[in-house]
Amino acid sequence: MRSISAMRSLLLCASSPTFLRSSASALRTPLSSLPFRPDLSCSKLGPARLSTTAGAKPRVAGGGSVMDVRAAQSGEIHVIVGPMFAGKTTALLRRVQAEAGTGRTVALVKSDKDNRYGLDSVVTHDGTKMPCWALPKLSSFQDKLGTEAYNKVDVIGIDEAQFFDDLHDFCCKAADRDGKIVVVAGLDGDYKRNKFGSVLDIIPLADSVTKLTARCELCGRRAFFTLRKTQETKTELIGGADVYMPVCRQHYSDGQIVIEATRIVMDIERSSDPRCVVSSQ
């Protein structure tokens, strides 16, 4: 689009001549698939379920049923936030994979609104992926997995958490009542730098909060914000590098000026285009 090209040209004039593309931080070691693939037709988890085999330690020792053990142990909530292209999903997958490596049973969840890479996997911008459950609401997770299988899950990873309206209630229940380790990754702010979804609501519940940064596409400095490159104004607009770019504070402010100027120019062009004039006759 001409407006996007004009915006990028204006931004680049005020920035370093070197154009740097942003990408998620590279993993130190490649991530493999989760130890199990959720199966909607079966309530049992695969070989990664918690056991007392060699090398895998149960989180809580002692007898009793699974629910008794859950009631006796305390859960955790860890939150990973930042702008787009900051490596939030990469950090989430690394944490979940590490937990699975200790013998814990893990499960990944994402919103079914995000279908950019399909609905059966959580995928990073550089292509690393793990199988997941794609759900409209977190409250449906236990029903989808099955009560028996849910009780055996130790770690729940939630990607694109800003799309879940029931994030706060789910995290409270999973960590406080069910003793789960919940790792949440999502945007803390939208393209206007306003609160996005319920991610900020769970900060008071969290054991830890990690704020990641990306690299500004226009100058290479640390990027804290997400700049939308289109004229679309709705808050939920799923897209990648074609729609968004990570930017530093200076280029976020400059970008908003350019976007507004572009919008005004486009409005003027539309009003002067005979094809856009509606006859009153």
From TrEMBL:
**Domain of life here?**
Eukaryota
What the entry lists under Pfam families is as follows: TK
Q: From the Swiss-Prot or TrEMBL record, what is one GO molecular function term?
A: thymidine kinase activity
- Mind listing the GO biological process terms from this record? DNA biosynthetic process; response to stress; thymidine metabolic process
Q: Which reaction does this enzyme catalyse, per its entry?
A: thymidine + ATP = dTMP + ADP + H(+)
InterPro entries named among the record's database cross-references: P-loop_NTPase, Thymidine_kinase, Thymidine_kinase_CS
Keyword annotations for this protein?
Answer: ATP-binding, DNA synthesis, Kinase, Metal-binding, Nucleotide-binding, Transferase, Zinc
* EC number(s) given by UniProt: 2.7.1.21
Q: Which SUPFAM superfamilies match?
A: Glucocorticoid receptor-like (DNA-binding domain), P-loop containing nucleoside triphosphate hydrolases
Q: Which family does it belong to?
A: Belongs to the thymidine kinase family.
- Name-wise, this protein is Thymidine kinase
Organism, by scientific name, is: Lolium multiflorum (Italian ryegrass)
